[in-house]
Design goal:
By secondary structure, the chain is mainly β. Helix content is 0%, strand content 53%.
Amino acid sequence: VQLQASGGGSVQAGESRRLTCVAYGLLFEDRYIDWVRQAPGQQREMVARISPRGSSTNYADSVKGRFTISRDNSKSSAYLQMNNLKPEDTGTYYCKSHQVGRPINWGQGTQVTVSS
């Protein structure tokens, strides 16, 4: 099982970035997908979650209205569209798959750096 996150980079405040998470070796459409970020010196926090069929999403208050999570089960992929990025969005972004009764799997992380 492998989750590959990509799309990070360095951007200016106000710009947009789209992260992609591709899953291998698991029944993707059976899993919730979270995007979790970790800022330097801080604990990981969930920023967005999408249900297995994409019918339900949840966001951290800090990103509501700016970030959108989506998925394409036919491609075993999930996405995080990040708009109006702020310096406080800087961190390593991980995708995580989970479901009751199934192992939790993490991707390797992709770095997003937002400068003012």
